[in-house]
Structure formats: C-alpha cells, structure tokens
Amino acid sequence: MSQRLGWIHRLLSRYAFAFVHVDAKFVERVRRLAERGTVVFVMRNRSIADYLLIRSVFLREGLPLPEFANELAIGWFRSLRWVFARIVERLSRLHIFRQAQREHLADRDTAARLVRAGHPLLIFLRAQAAGVRALLRPQRALESKRIGDPYLEDLFVIAAERPVYVVPLAPFRGRGYRRRNSRLATLVYSVQDAPSELKKLVTVLFNRRDLSLTIGEEIDLRSFINRYGAEGAASMVRRMTRALQIFLYREERLVWGPPLLPKRVVRELVLGQPALRETMNEIAIERETPVEKVRREAQGYFDEIASNFNGTYFAILAFVFRRIWNRIFRGVEITGLDRVADRIREHSVVLVPCHRSHFDYLILSYIFHSEFLSPPHIAAGINLSFFPLGMLFRGAGAFFIRRSFGDNELYKAVFREYLTYLIRDGYTQEFFIEGGRSRTGKILTPKLGMLSAIVNSFLHGVRRDLYFVPVSISYERLVEEEAYKRELLGAEKEKENFLALLRARSVLRASISPSRSR
User: Fold this and answer.
1) Which residue of 2, 17, 86, 144 could cross-link 56, Cys pair, CB 3.0 to 4.6 Å?
2) Could you tell me if residue 232 is inside a domain?
C-alpha cells in the first residue's frame, strides 16, 4: 500500500479526497498507538475506492501508511511502468496452476512478517468483486465471502510476541439522512452497501465535500486474548468481527440516522396501528359516517404533521442558511457536542433547546450537519408551515404541530402514533419545551404537551432507552429584536408569512459589526 500509485490516484486525491473530514483527536490517537505497538486497520468490505480514500487521508495527515492490504487488485491505479512490468512477469510464468492459492499463502506470510516488524496493515473482512470485473459486471459485486478471518487468526499468534492494536475504519460518503428503498438516495448517500466499485466512485464525486472517515476505538489483542482465549481462535475471530460490526452500525447511526422510509409507507404504518384504527372506528360510529371518510380525514392530519425529508430541499435550506449566518454572525461556540454524539451512537435522544429566535429551528440542524451528525426531526409550530419555508422545513426534517388540539380526538391520535413511530425507529428529535419564543430573554414556563407525549410513548414500551438533552442557545444580538420591542410596547404579534419574510430582507442587508455578533 505504501507503493507509489499513478496519475488516477493523484487526480482523485486532489479533486475528490481533498475534503475528507477526519477528527484530529482520532488522528493523534493512531499516532500514539503506532508508538506503542503494531496498528492493524480493519474495514468491513474490500473496496478499491475506500482504499484510495484512506491512502489519501493518511498521506495528508502524516499517518504511517499500511504496507499491506489483503486481496486488493489496484494495478489499474499504479504507474504504466509498473503495469507493463507486471504483464511481462505474468506472461513469463509457465506454471499457473494453483497460483491463486500460492499467492494467498504468500500474502499471509507477508502480512505476518510485517506485523512482527511493527509495520501497519489494512485487513478487509469481506470480499466483493473488485477491479474491472465489478465495473463490467456489477452483479458480481453482490457475491461476498469472508477473506479477513485467516489474517485475524494470525494476529492472535503474533500478539503474544508484541503489542498489536486492531483499529476499525468507517468511511462515509454523504451525511444527514439515507432513504430506504430509494435508488437515487442509495446512489448519493449510501456507502457500506454500495454493490459495485463504479457506484462507489460515483458517490465520491457526488459527495466530495461530504466525505468523512471515522477511526474507531482500538482493540488491544493481548487484553482480548486474556479475556476470550479459552474459546479458541475461530471463536475469537467471530467475536471480534461482531465487535467491529457493532462499531460500524453505531457510526452509521450517528452520521446517517435510521434509514428513512417513503412518506406513503410511513403513512400506512401510522394509520394502520391498532390503537388508531380503533379510534377511527369509534369516531365513525359516533359521527354516523363511513370509516373510510374518517380515515381520509386522518390521512389529511398525517400529511399536515409529518416531515418528508428531501435532499434537494435540505441542500437549498443549508445553502441559504450559511449565507445568512455568515453575514449576520461571526460564528458559533459549541460545548458538549461530543457527549451528545456518544449518546446518539447507542440510544434515542430528544434535544430540548430554549427558544429565543426563529434561527433556533435551524441552528442545531446546521451544527449537526456541519459536524457529520444526522440532523434531528424538529417539532415546529404550524404557523411556520407557510410557502415556501414550510416546504423547505418539512424537507429538512421538521414536522408541524397545531398550537391547540382542542377536543379533536382524531388529530390527537394521529399525532400520538406519528410521534411513537419516530421514537420507536430511533430518530433524534428536537422540541422547544417553552412552546413559543421568549421575547424578554428569560426562560418561559414550560408547556408539557410534547414532553408528556414522548414520556407516555416510552412508558408504553416503545423503547428501552431514551435520553433528554437540554440545550441552551444564546445570542449577542437577535434578528427579531425590533419586532420584540414593538410587541413588548403593546403591538400585536405579526403572523409569520411570506410577505413578512420579504420585509426581513432589510435586516439581512444590515451591516453588523463582528464584535457584536456571536
């Protein structure tokens, strides 16, 4: 792997892999591990695209390059001189029988020798069709076999001689959300399950500014052997593989969140719940009207409430928000986000921020997106569901709630079941416990409707774990401060609409001193 590659890799490093995000603390941890022993990096699926990405990042960060990668054909990415020499070598061989088996044994010997000498390695756990075969026959890429087990078994033997640390790697193309059963979203956002090298390389180009590499916690093989050595080598390999799979699952959950279902599927799931069907039947009997008519009314309530993520809308909103944010504010200071990310990896999380400005609806999604975390589903007031922002907000994960349900039992039931669906599937949520924005800067008396609904869903056994995270958002200057002054002096609150949005353009054009913004 440390050999020099050709011009194709140089182009990818300059134009595709130059923006790969990797946490500096992970990089520093790898450096410390390399000083203490041999580092063996592990990935789930063999992939030329992922190999090239990792090589580029390691070169950029000054990390020691793995000097071996199992069963990886990268000849097409090397120099023409190397390719020509390789062709001549192959043609000069007269005995080609059992050549693959001999090369496999030679590779294992090479890997073992390098580990004993303290050189880093990269081991792929599973194989998919690679190289030209995957480009020409994508269906071959679906064939998979375990290719990393023999190398892991050898590591357990070597770990008795010197410290060996197994470090999982997880590259991601795209961030935010991923749709289930959606070909376009799979092409643009999916990484680990991409069935061909061509598809993976395309995702690099689609997401070159949204590429990230996560370096997981190391596994000390000596400690691992001391704990599980009595089970035998094969059992230890399976146990380690499961541990690596758990790491990958948690990182995917953190970056992408749970897979999104199409809205029509979610609608059928919510309206098909036994409790909601019983409520619709009772209301139909009470009103003396057909159940189908009540169901259509419930479907209208669902469409009014539910979010409907759309990658295009999210990108538009993110672009506009960045332009406005950079004009008005100098930056944002973030404290405690690492602790929140640790919870999201393993648990369901509900963010509960204070409410000062309309920017509150966007700021957490902006921070999560910029930090490669899956943005939350946000409970927003129905007053914000006006064109065009309502469409954009809904496409970015917002779901809308009426200020008051009154005696509308059907609306309550639909909302309760939709909220239960979000909790059950593990989506990160966000709601403002004050209900409305504070005009004075003081915390308002909490409104317990959303909190009660979430807690009730939890108590009914929807999930075994649920974390509430209080979030404080403070500004040195609010965009709405002039409107707040008028309201405090007795003026009526202006209803949110598109005309009010256009009138706010004077605020956005205003020159604000950087020393007064935060």
Assistant:
1) 17
2) yes
Q: What tens digit of pLDDT does each residue of 56-98 get? A: 999 999 998 898 888 876 655 555 554 555 555 555 554 444 4
Token pair in block for residue 145: 């076999």
Q: Is the pLDDT of residue 100 over 80?
A: no
Q: What is the largest CA-CA distance in the chain?
A: 95
Q: Token pair of 46, please?
A: 């063999």
Token pair belonging to 366? 């902006």
Residues 70, 189, single domain; the answer is: yes
Same domain, 131 and 21: yes
How far is residue 426's CA from residue 429's CA, in Å, rounded to a whole number? 9
Task: Quote the pLDDT of residue 136.
Answer: 47
| Final residue before a domain boundary, out of 205, 224, 256 | 256
* Three-state secondary-structure class, residue 66: coil
Same domain, 379 and 403: yes
Task: Please tell me whether residues 236 and 278 are part of one structural domain.
Answer: no
Burial of 20 (0-12, 13-18, 19+ CB in 10 A): buried
456 shares a domain with 431: yes
Among 307, 327, 340, smallest CA distance to 472 is for 340
Residue 108 tokens read as 């294992």
pTM of the full structure: 0.76
Cα 374 from Cα 348, distance rounded (Å): 12
Range of the structural domain that residue 389 is part of: 263-516
Distances (CA, A) of 459 to 157, 343, 462: 49, 20, 7
Give Cα 178 distance to the centre of its chain. 8
170 vs 462: which has the higher pLDDT? 170
